[in-house]
Each structure stands twice: as structure tokens, then as C-alpha cells.
Please model this.
Amino acid sequence: MSTIATAMTADHRRCDEIFSRAEELVSSGDWTSGEAEFTAFREAMLSHFSMEEERLFPAFEQHLGHAMGPTQVMRMEHMQMRQLFTEMEQAVGIRDDARYLGLSETLMMIMQQHNMKEEQMLYPMMDRTLGQAGGEIAQQIGQT
Amino acid sequence: MINTVSLSLDQAPPISIPFRFFLTAPLFAIGAGLELLILGDEMIATRWSPLTLGLTHLLTLGVLGMVMCGALLQMLPVIAGSPVPRVMLVGTLTHLLLILGTLLLTISFLSGSVVVTLAALTCLGICFGLFVIAAGIALWRLVAPGVTIRGMRLTLVALVVTVILGMAAALGYVGIAPIGHLSLVTNIHLGWGLLGWVGLLLVSVSFQLVPMFQITPEYPSWVKRYLPSSVFIGLFAWLLLKLVPVMAWSDAPAQLAVALVVSGYILFSVTTLRLLSQRKRRVPDVTLLFWRLGMYALVLCALLWIGGALFPPPDAAHYFSMLLGIGLIQGVALSVINGMLYKIVPFLCWFHLQNRQMALMSMTVRVPHMKEFVTDRSAKRQFHLHLSGLVFTLAAAVAPLWFLRPAALLFILSNSLLLLNLAAAVQKYRATFKLLTPPAPGPTAGVGGTG
Model:
């Protein structure tokens, strides 16, 4: 059976792979493919964020009865990452590889510790609290 | 049933806590290098000379212990979701007592003074006691610990054993406590310190960080599950077999226990090197250079130990244990720690600045990215100094007359550049922090950087 943890963790890994490809292309100076790969990466991340912010977090917050605590921190980190995407896009625009690689290194650090907190704490907690409803959401996520 | 209050995802300590540890460490390394440069001739004769012991502790307490304590205070809230209680107080006291205790211990080795030794032991005892209790609370209150947390718990126990054995040995040396078999106690103290406290922390943190930041496959689950506990059991068996007189009937079981520990570390380093070679992230990375060096050094140390066990070197070959010690401390531990600092320090600079920027919504100020805090070029230059320093120190263990002074010089240079790189990052952090200060509504605004 698909759980929130397995479905969302798999999506993290998918984003990681696109991230590495984009970084490698930019590092090798291939801006044409690099730009396309960066765009694909940003799209993958943004759709992951919206799955969380529009479906998972509200369901979980409704269960808790408030929107404070862990989900609030996760939303905040999403904002930090969105800001980095914007800066990376600018670096792609002006073909500044040093800047892109510095930003992608930074993004890597924040993204990975964000993912770790979700995978090890938040998702398992959601699976436990949301029960059947969570399984259904996970099922839909797996299909998209 | 589910305690969401304890799921604190956002309780990183103030940046000044980890940074005071990280910036102090290179100073102790430079101090150790100076000691080697000035007093080196007397030191190399034997590993038991007070100078060698003092130098070792400048590195293990002042550098390794310093960075490890600071990093744990920083990492526990993130990795475990469990912040260290009273982190400001614990961090401040641990840091000060560790500095004072290390300096006093160095003086006590040089002077042999009983009073100074007792003062050093008091400082270090309170320092580690406080640290173990605080970190212990954070680690043991978790209900469902993962492999990293279980490994860190073992690490903390190993620290306790190391400190107790070290204190017993020190009291024995100055003649206060009637400790028999002093060299044996010292050996076990050294083994628990390097292969227990340092090694197990390295192993458990790697399980988490290597796949995460290098995008490698996970460590095999059986490695994660059994490796730290096997190493710990091996160390514990070694301690019992050596120290309990009834069991000391033959050396073979104790050698076997050490062999278990050594094979654990071979497994760890080979697995890590294999994972690193499979990494999906293909961009050059200075931290990776340090990590690879550390892992190769670990394999070589293990092979050296096996060689020594199969073909025992003559007693006169004191360089054998020197090579092992240098390989483990400078080759493995310092390499990995040095590499880690190049990730943690720039990241924390960025992280705290960006949090501040978002809190103030002052989007006109650009927060520098990580590689603007420490440039790749400068970090790489320091890696080359570190590597040459290591090669020369190893050579100095065999031919001190030729290599000792160049080795000391390279070690000083390497750590000075490390200090410079970290200080430049803090400088940039402070400058940006000031720009991010909101237009002052009252006289209290505008307090400077916390680094």
C-alpha cells in the first residue's frame, strides 16, 4: 500500500536527480540543456510544494486544529527555496555559472535538510494521524 | 498519542554557539603546530614523552573535541528533531571549560605539576559532564530513534568511558591514585577516544549525511543496523579482556576484539568510498576531497594495524604507533572535520541571514550564496596544504630529522588558512547582517552580528 511517506519520498528522489543533472550540465558549460533541465527541476519542485501546501498540510492542520508548528516551518522553508529558484533563474538568464553553482550548493543544503525532516518526522506523523484519508491522498499522488 | 509539540523542526541554536567552537579549533591546531616546531626534537623520541601526550591532547580536545561538541549542539535539533536543553548556557560553559581545560592539561604535561593537573581534570570533568547530560537528554528523550540517533547514543557512552579512563590515567601519572598498568589504561583510553567517540560519531553522521549531500545510494541497511553496535561491542570486550585481571590470561581474545573493531572500520570506509563513487552529484566539491582522503587514510590505518598484528614490529620501531596515531588523528579525523566545516559554516551564514531577511522583508539586500562565504579556490588551496602536511607528518614519524620542521610548518600554514577562510565567512556574515538591520525606530536597534 502506498503511504504519504513512500510517495512523497519517491518524489524527493526524483527532484534530486533532475537537480543533479541540471547542476552537471551548467557545470560543463552546456547552457542550452542546462536551462531546460533547470526549468524541469523548478517545475518538479513547485508541483511538489503545491501538493504539500494545498493538500497534505491542510489535511494535517485540520486534524491538529491549528496551522502552527511543523507545517508552518515547512511552508517557511518552501519560501526560502522559492527565493533561491528565483535567484538561480536569474543566474541562468545571464549565463553566470559560478553564481548558479554557488546557489545550487546552497539550495542543496537547505533542500536536503528540509527533505530529511519531512521524511523522518513529518510524513510518518501524517501517515499515523490521517490514516485512511492519508492513504487515499498518497494513492492520488502516486498516480500523478 | 502523537506529540506534535516535541516535533520541533525549527530550534537551531543561535549562530554564535556553533561558530565559537568552529573558530577556536584552528587556533588550537596552530598552537599544536607551533609546539611541534619549537619543541619537536624532544617529542619524536617516544610516544610516551609528555610533549607528545600534550600535543595529542591539543589536537584531540582542542580541535576534534571542540568541533564535535559545537557540531552536535548544532545538529541535534536538525537530525534528531530534539534540541539540546539550555543550549546557550551549555554551549557557553562547555566552550570556555574546554579551552581552559585543554590549556591547563597541556601545561600539566609540560610541568608535571599536581595542582595544574587537578585543575585541568576539574575543568574537563565539568565540561564533558555538562555536555553529556545536555546532549544525553536530547538523545534519550526520543521515543523511536533511527540508526543515526542510536549511533550517537553509543558515541556519547564512548565519550564517558574515554573521559573516565583519561582521568584515571592522569591521576595515576601524577601519583595521586594508585593506578596499575598505566600504559594499558592509556592505550584503552586512546582506543575508546579515537575508535569510540570520534569514530562512531563519524560513522553515524555519515549514514545520514553522505547519501543526503552527495546524492548517493543509501548505506546497506545491515551495515547501518549492525556496524555501530559491533564496533561498540568490540571495544567493550577489549576493555574487559584487558582490564579484568582474570580475563587477561591470554592476549588472543583481546586481539580478536580489536580485530572486530578494525574490520568494522574497514567495512565502513570501503562502503563509503564505494557510495561516493556512485554519487549522482557530479560537480567538483572540496568537502568531497577531504572525505575521500579521510576514508583512504582509514583503510590504510586498518591495513597498518593488521600488518602490525601479523608481523609484530620490533620494540624499537616506535614509529609504528606514531604512524597509526597520525593516520587516525590527522589523516582521518582532521580531514573529515575540516571538510565538514566548509559545508556547515557557509550554510549557517546563509541560513541565518536569509531567515533574518525574510523576517524583516528586506528584499533589497542580497544574501550571499554559500560559495561567496568561502570560495572554492581558497578551500582547495587549504586542502592541498592539509594533504602535504599529512604526508610530511607521516614521513616525520619515520625520519624526524628531515621532516619534522617542514611538517610542523605545513600544519601551521594549513590551519592558518582554514582559520582565515572561516574568519572571512564570519566577516561577510557580519557585514550582511548589518545591512539587514531595519531602519532603527529606537536607540536599541542595530546590535551587531552574533557570530
User: Anything to note?
Assistant: The mean pLDDT of chain A is 91.
